[in-house]
Amino acid sequence: MDRLEATRIFVGVADAGSLSAAAQRLELPLATVSRKLAALEAHLGARLMTRTTRRLALTEAGRRYLDAGRRILAEMDAAERAVGGMVETPRGRLGLTAPYVFGRVHVLPVVNAFLAAWPEVDARLLLLDRVVDLLDEGLDLAVRIGPLPESGMIATRVGTIGSYVCAAPAYLDCHGTPQAPADLGAHACIAFSAASAVDGWAFPVHGRMVAVPVRTRLIVSTAEAAVDAAEAGLGITRILSYQAAGAIEAGRLRRILVPFEPLPAPVSIVRPEGRLAPAKVRAFLDFAAPRLRRALAPALISGRASG
Questions:
Q1: Would you say 300 and 162 are in contact if contact means Cβ atoms under 8 Å apart?
Q2: 3-84: which CATH topology?
Q3: What's the pLDDT band for 305 if we cut at 50, 70, 90?
Q4: What is the pLDDT of residue 276?
Q5: Measured at the alpha carbon of residue 18, what is the angle toward residues 122 and 103, in degrees to the nearest 5?
């Protein structure tokens, strides 16, 4: 048995949370991963993992061996790079996820440029308006908008995104412009259910967020639909700045209630901690972070505001 290979597979399984996810990430047959893990446990004379309903759980012996295994692998990789004097070339499949509209507008162009720069890398990009478990999906990276909860993730912050209340100029000319959040009760509102509450929108008041009742005339499931309905003059909508940027720049929508906008939400690229990031991940972070920072830099000051 190649103990170094078996240790690398064990660490891969621990990081991925399941044999199948580890097999996909390590690009090995599932049977090989299972056989190598069993051989390592037999060699050590101890069970390293137990199976639960959703994923594998480390035993006490497994946790101890995982710490030692990571150190050994990191030192071995560092020694090989130092002795070989060569830079590892990014290769393999890079898996990442991002919110749908943000991913289409900002992440996809970066991925396209990255693939052009690194021909030995392929990519799998999931554009979904929900939080995806990277380990369950076998992904390397995620772009997340909003405060990050405590988790086993390493985050690289790339900017911020504002939350805008918008309406078509024709609607505001006909119905008037709200001057305070409380005025929204007298207006027709369009709710984007994936991003905001349906019957009340929260605004900062004296340092805390307070829900203000709104009259919802239309509930949609995508930001594009909310923008389209607002442009058509149906009512007022609340969406993220990048979702409304094009319509605001073109004058089809106008920002209102600007003094009452909440603090911008952070945008971060996250990856699982506890393992040495492969070259494809390090290369993408180095490539994508400055480009996303440049793309997001003007997001808070673009557009026409009326308040």
A1: yes
A2: Arc Repressor Mutant, subunit A (1.10.10)
A3: very low
A4: 59
A5: 40
Tokens in use for 141? 């990276």
CB of 156 closer than 8 Å to CB of 148? no
Class level of CATH domain 92-160+267-296:
alpha beta
Phi and psi, residue 131, nearest 5°: -80, 125
CB atoms within 10 A of CB 70: 17
Tell whether the model's pLDDT for residue 297 goes beyond 70. Answer: yes
Q: What is the second-level CATH architecture of the domain 163-260?
A: 3-Layer(aba) Sandwich (3.40)
SS3 per-residue string spanning 208-242: EEEEEECEEEEEECCHHHHHHHHHCCCCEEEEEHH
The answer to whether 300 and 264 are in contact (CB under 8 A) is yes
How many CA atoms does the CB half-sphere of 108 hold within 13 Å? 10
